Amino acid sequence: MALTPEDVVTKQFQHVRFKEGFDPDEVDDFLDEIVVEWRKTIAENEELKAKLAAYESGDAAPAEVVEAAVVEEPAAVQSVPAPAPAVEAPAAGGVAASAGIIELAQRLHDEHVAEGQAQRDKLVSEAQAKAATILAEAEAKGRDEMARLESERAVLESRISELRQFERDYRSQLRGFIEDKLRDLDVAGATSGASPVSAS
Questions:
Q1: In angstroms, what is the C-alpha Rg of the chain?
Q2: Sign of the CA dihedral 68, 71, 31, 112?
């Protein structure tokens, strides 16, 4: 099936979301430029065919009429689609123009893809650098916190050992004091038991 400018104008593409793609307005504008150039190429092709047919028949007048009509009404040629050639191969100029347009479209496509890939690589490298910075900061903060906790633990362990030593000293002092008092009681009891109780 022959592709016509109308096929390009009416072609609908699926919109994708959350994926890489091109700006639809930019693509539409570029396709409009392609359609205009394509219609010019088809009009030139038809003009050349008419001239060729006129020269082959030996009559130059019809070719001049066709040429005058093309010069007088260029807007009509752009707004009304020219019929696609039926069987004959397109002229060499039309093929070259079409190839040029396709090459231009391919080059623009490649440039956009390369630009998108460069942007993606830049964003990925920036994200990796930021992640590495955040990770390094978190590790440094974790090390500082561990050192602080270790220092607090050493202080607390020292305080606990001081309190235990204090408890041991206090217990031994208390035991000595109680034992002294018990000895005093024993002595006082022994002396009071040896003295006679007076009967009154």
A1: 52
A2: positive
> pLDDT tens for residues 69-120?
444 444 434 444 444 444 444 455 667 777 778 888 888 888 888 989 999 9
The tokens 């919109």 sit on which residue? 15
Which is nearest to 97 in space by CA: 41, 49, 163? Answer: 41
Q: Please name the residue that has the structure tokens 């093929």.
A: 95
Under 8 Å between Cβ of 47 and 67:
yes
Rounded Cα–Cα distance for residues 7 and 26 (Å): 18
DSSP state of 89: P
Q: Among 93, 79, 16, 14, which residue's Cα sits nearest to residue 51?
A: 93
The two three-digit tokens of residue 62, written as one number: 């019809």
Q: Cα(103)–Cα(15) distance, rounded to whole angstroms?
A: 25
Alpha carbon 112 to its chain centroid, in Å, reads 17
- Helical H runs in the chain? 5-10, 24-57, 61-72, 74-79, 92-194
